[in-house]
Amino acid sequence: MVAGYPDLRGPLALTLSYLRPPLHWVDNPLPLGAVVRRVKPKVIIYCDGACSPNPGIGGWASLLISPKQGKEKVFTGAEADTTNNRMELTAAIKGLEALKVPCEVDIHTDSQYVHHAFTEGWLTKWTSNGWKNSERKPVVNS
Questions:
Q1: 97-114 pLDDT, tens per residue?
Q2: Where are the domains of the chain?
């Protein structure tokens, strides 16, 4: 018999006693049924879009930074016939789409349009309304 393992006997019991300490050796065991939360990685996204003239030729860029891993990645794109707001939104969306796992995200933008889409709940309303605005018209730049 092995201390902490009253039902184990023989060579297997001896081997297990070396591999795993009895439960009473654990300093702070989690209570039965405890939920362990996994911490999500943090990512910082800097995004910008532009168009000249507006509407006209435009481009966008997203810089993703993982502070913990010390990694950076840049995503860019362009469109021939677009608007400034569409490029600003595209930059934010492409940055978010580049995430491979759920993350805690900080988005930095100079666009009031993108800022309000997140902070004023516009995105939630748009998606729940089938990408229609409050007047039931298609969301511009969607």
A1: 999 999 999 999 999 999
A2: 42-128
3-state class (DSSP) for residue 115: helix
Q: Which amino acid is at 95?
A: G
Beta strands in the chain (DSSP E): 42-52, 56-66, 71-82, 104-108
Q: How far is CA 69 from the centre of its chain?
A: 15
Q: What three-state secondary structure class fits 99?
A: coil
End-to-end CA distance of the chain: 69
Q: What is the pTM of this model?
A: 0.69
Residue matched to tokens 């309000």: 116
104-108/42-52 β-pairing: parallel
Cis previous bond, 53, omega within 30: yes
* Percent of the chain residues topping a pLDDT of 90: 50
Helix axes 84-97, 112-119, angle to 10 degrees: 50
Considering the domain 42-128, what is its CATH architecture? Answer: 2-Layer Sandwich (3.30)
Q: Among candidates 37, 47, 38, 61, which has minimal Cα distance to 108? A: 47
